[in-house]
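Justification of computing resources. Each target in the renewal requires a structure prediction run like the one illustrated here; the chain below, 130 residues long, is used simply to show the kind of job we budget for.
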Amino acid sequence: MEVVNQRSALLSNYEVLTLLKELESDHLARTRTALRIKKEEEAAGLPRNHVPQEEVLENLRTIEVEAIQYLSADHQPSLKQTDASISQLTRSLSRFDLTKAEKLQIVNLAPTEAVELYVVHCRRTRRSAR
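Resulting structure tokens:
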């Protein structure tokens, strides 16, 4: 099975969502561990010596949470996509003369109507006319 290139300069919405969910999971695990240690220290009557190793800026956390919510919305195709489905789609698109950015737009938009593909084509036509 071909995996979506993790070092690509362009990321699909699916890849961004996957990364943000991993970061969220890591953050929750660190928070649970910090709370457990704090409770153990308090139960043992120890002074609070534990200093969090990592402080995440609240603004960044807010952006992460909102991005996860947006990319997880019912109208977003990223919920139904997988590494395999994206790889298959991009392989199928290789027979057309499309740039990486155009393929990415198609992956992110997941068009179901020809008119939706027209938007990608119009942008390309305007760009090449310059």
